[in-house]
Amino acid sequence: MRLIFLGPPGSGKGxxxxxxxxxxxxxxISTGDMLRQAVADGTPMGLxxxxxxxxxxxxxxxxxxxxxxxxxxxxxxxxxxxxDGFPRTTGQAQALDAILHDFSAPIDHAVAFTVDDxxxxxxxxxxxxxxxxxxxxxxxxxxxxxxxECDKCGGELVQRxxxxxxxxxxxxxxxxxxxxxxxxxxxxxxxLVEIDAAxxxxxxxxxxxxxxxx
Length: 214
Ligand code: ADP
Ligand code: ADP
Known about the structure:
Layout: E1 2-6, H1 13-24, E2 27-30, H2 31-41, H3 44-54, H4 61-72, E3 81-84, H5 90-102, E4 109-114, H6 117-125, E5 127-130, E6 136-138, E7 157-158, H7 165-179, H8 181-188, E8 192-196, H9 201-212
Parallel strand pairs: 1-3, 1-4, 2-3, 4-8
Antiparallel strand pairs: 5-6, 5-7
Helix pairs in contact: 1-9, 2-3, 4-5, 6-7
This protein binds adenosine-5'-diphosphate (2 copies).
């Protein structure tokens, strides 16, 4: 199965993509994780991306399109994939159409996660991510067994630089302006399914599985 996850930052795309990918062996493609890795490695692409990410702005289309093309061509994605955080602009959506056409691998569904802005701010302010394996936690909603330590790999849990309230609100503005129009893009192609992402993780997961027929 080939899925696209759309939704504002903090709507739970990464959490749900991780659960579905683990259960079904799909490859989870998070452009945000890949960009953060490039920043941590100090690659030229990472250096270019960092300023945009810290400011809550999008990284230029050509940078992320290149990453996604390389990843989708890999053997790991044959069984299915979840694009988590891509596409985020109409230009990216059009590029993705062309890439998937080349691979004869059309998407099955674009899933839109719906949640209001205040819930997003609460979720992102408490988000913690493992420095080692990128596993996701929340100080109140999904705490680790031991404070500050990843349940899966024992790595250190850190707060992302862009999970500060001013940057979160900027990311929400960017989402509304650049990414929300993609809901109509995929609705028009008959691919869009919308789910209420405001409930607890298990409830959202059940709604997601039902929406995509898994
Ligand atoms: P979230 O879903 O919490 O907003 P992500 O980890 O998906 O966070 O993205 C973090 C940042 O990485 C974005 O604010 C943006 O700067 C950059 N980014 C990630 N994916 C894309 C993309 N598809 N296009 C442009 N920039 C991206
Ligand atoms: P996204 O990838 O859309 O930015 P995440 O999956 O990273 O969102 O979730 C953002 C934060 O909210 C994380 O700290 C995560 O643990 C928490 N979270 C995810 N889903 C839920 C939920 N349904 N209810 C409460 N908190 C959630």
